[in-house]
Specification:
Layout: H1 5-29, H2 39-43, H3 51-64, E1 75-76, H4 91-101, H5 116-128, H6 143-157, E2 166-169, H7 172-183, E3 190-196, H8 200-209, E4 212-217, H9 228-241, E5 245-252, H10 264-276, E6 280-284, H11 301-307, E7 316-322, E8 336-341, H12 345-356, H13 363-373, H14 380-405, E9 410-411, E10 420-421, E11 424-425, H15 430-437, H16 443-455, E12 457-458, E13 460-461, E14 474-477, H17 485-503
Parallel strand pairs: 1-12, 3-4, 3-5, 5-6, 6-7
Antiparallel strand pairs: 2-8, 7-8, 9-11, 10-14, 13-14
């Protein structure tokens, strides 16, 4: 019997309903859903790639599709990613890496395009790397590179370093994660002291591992100094008021996001504090090449501790370095190291076991660490690139800080080091209410979202780094090309004034 159009339509609707029902049933039966995930993962936040960046990525798609926006391109100042903003890779390093990836280039007619120094270094690495860079290395990292790191540390600090106490890692972040995995057992309420403002890696890992983040506040009114009195307050509050077993203390020097460079007197206070409370000192020193203030210099915590002699004999220290920062800027290659000082061999054996779970760090990143710590000697072009990059960063830091301080409602400490400024912004009271109504976590997150929508400049809200309650900040890099800094400041200043006018009467 021929069915009517209405019956056919009804049957089609029923069929689609059944399909949707099956689809819903299948989804309900799936093992991996948001509801089934580790709740700590759901709670974890990482501000430098958070909501503001999501907005920026959407705007980028709109630009690509030809949409008319108030700007023609995005300026990514949300993360220390130098090469994305135009920093040129070091020629020597890239030549060595190219030869390691394709050793036959050394024998080809095009071999003259590579310097003799690069070919010599590539041959030295290849003679020590079994199977080349495409093969697994030891889990702790290539022996030749660990020896280079040990020599670098010994020369820098004036004290010996043992290659067997050095672990190569896929970026400093991977080393920090290993330490957190080893320290946080989950068998009791454990805490790690972290400077506030902090780099969101530490808050994210604390959440993910189930550790308490025990913040000690840096003093913004005193160039983000770390005061001993505040450290003691934070420790006492964590241990006595909250019953937390504090096991370690993080120091970021030079600071991220704050840009301060600690004095040796302050470093000695921190060492004594860690010894007194039996804390492992985790020294994030990835910006050690980035020091700009005339009266400042980088001194490693290892050097400070060993110079203190018996007073610091019981200090346990893990220090981190990376190829992503400084004048190297090889963020995407993912290379770093950590050195374990005054850590027993049986503990180091457990770290080797932990490292073996990932088989090995990526080999190109490992070799890049070797190239960072063992640069070519008497190479005029390398020196020109290095010195030019660092001098330019210094000029940009000074210029941007000065210009931001000239904008009413914005105040900013100078960058003594690192790659960032962390300006304080004065916002009308209504901004917090409006931010909440619009679904933002804080007033400065709303502010930063409006910055990118209006200007294309991507910065990170201060709330993502944690801050003194009632204050608002944002973090910006000073990595845009030097010739664009003036334009950056003008656009930002125009936005800030417009934002205040738009909200002052609400």
């Amino acid at each position: 019997m021929r069915k009517s159009g209405r019956e056919i339509s009804r049957m089609a609707t029923v069929s689609k309903s059944c399909e949707r029902g099956e689809e819903k049933k299948e989804k309900r039966d799936l093992a991996l859903t948001v509801e089934s995930l580790n709740p700590r993962l759901l709670d974890m936040k990482y501000a430098v790639r958070g909501k503001v960046l999501d907005i920026a990525q959407d705007l980028k798609k709109q630009l690509a599709s030809g949409a008319a926006l108030p700007f023609s391109e995005l300026c990514s100042c949300n993360i220390g990613n130098p090469q994305k903003l135009g920093q040129v890779p070091l020629k020597f390093n890239r030549e060595v890496l190219a030869l390691l990836m394709m050793p036959s280039l050394m024998l080809s007619k095009d071999s003259t395009m590579f310097s003799d120094a690069a070919k010599t270094r590539a041959k030295a690495y290849l003679s020590e790397i079994e199977g080349g860079v495409g093969a697994y290395s030891m889990s702790q990292g290539l022996q030749i590179v660990r020896k280079e790191v040990a020599s670098f540390i010994a020369k820098r600090d004036g004290f010996p370093s043992n290659p067997e106490h050095i672990f190569l890692t896929s970026g400093a972040s991977a080393g920090v994660k290993m330490i957190y995995q080893a320290l946080v057992s989950g068998s009791r309420k454990e805490g790690i002291m972290v400077p506030i403002p902090q780099y969101p890696l530490y808050s994210a890992l604390s959440t993910l591992m189930g550790a308490e983040l025990c913040g000690y506040y840096l003093d913004e009114s005193s160039a983000w100094t770390a005061h001993l009195k505040e450290m003691e307050r934070a420790y006492t509050e964590a241990t006595r008021a909250h019953g937390t077993s504090v096991c370690a203390m993080v120091v970021i020097n030079p600071g991220n996001p704050t840009g301060q460079c600690l004095s040796e007197a302050s470093q000695r206070d921190i060492v004594r504090f860690c010894v007194r409370h039996r804390l492992v000192l985790l020294a994030d020193e990835v910006y050690q090449e980035n020091v700009y203030a005339k009266d400042k210099r980088f001194t490693s915590f290892k050097r400070v501790a060993l110079a203190m002699g018996h007073e610091a004999a019981d200090l346990q220290l893990v220090s981190f370095h990376s190829i992503s920062k400084g004048f190297i800027g090889e963020c995407g290659l993912r290379g770093g190291y950590m050195e374990l000082h005054n850590i027993s061999d049986d503990v180091i054996a457990q770290f080797r076991k932990l490292a073996s779970v990932s088989l090995c760090p990526n080999t190109i990143g490992q070799v890049s660490v070797g190239l960072m710590v063992n640069p070519p000697t008497n190479d005029a072009e390398y020196s020109r690139q290095r010195d030019g990059t660092l001098a330019s960063l210094k000029r940009r830091a000074e210029k941007l800080a000065g210009a931001l301080n000239d904008i009413d409602g914005i105040s900013c400490n100078d960058a003594e080091g690192a790659m960032y400024l962390f300006p304080k912004i004065q916002l009308p009271e209504c901004v917090s209410r409006i931010a909440k109504e619009k679904g933002y976590a804080s007033a400065d997150e709303y502010y930063c979202a409006e910055v990118v929508r209006s200007t294309g400049i991507v910065v990170v809200p201060g709330s993502g780094f944690k801050q003194v309650r009632g204050t608002f900040h944002f973090r910006t890099t000073f990595l845009p090309p030097e010739e664009r800094i003036d334009g950056f400041v003008k656009v930002f200043g125009d936005f800030h004034r417009s934002f205040l006018r738009a909200h002052e009467s609400k």
